[in-house]
Amino acid sequence: MKTILSILLLTSAFQAPAASLSEVVEKECPGETNVEINGVVAPCIFKDYVVVFDTSKHWAEAMAKAIELGYKTGRVGGVVLIGSKKDKGYQRAKELIYGMPIPIELNSLKLKHGI
Predict the structure, then answer these.
(1) For a pLDDT cut of 90, what percent of the chain falls above it?
(2) Average pLDDT over residues 14-43
(3) Which contiguous run of DSSP H or E holds residue 42?
(4) How far apart are CA 89 and CA 70, in angstroms?
(5) CA atoms within 13 A on the CB side of 1
């Protein structure tokens, strides 16, 4: 099965001080969190998608993890990058994604108090 990396659109600002990554996932995941499927734990999963959240600094790891989880769960892998659209990691992810021959959208999640 061909896995397509889908970057989901989420934009939000947190009021809470220094949220951890797991707290961000719990709050922003549009589905269930930490679900085990086929021997892997998906941080955020719903009917057709498995979503990985990470900081824009770790964009490459997040994309790789989303592709892996998408394949292992039979869903489309998605990534939400936490940070600004001006971050270097976001820009690199955008360049890579829009250079691929598949339609993908990219956005960011900006925190008032970072992780």
Answers:
(1) 19
(2) 82
(3) strand 40-46
(4) 21
(5) 14
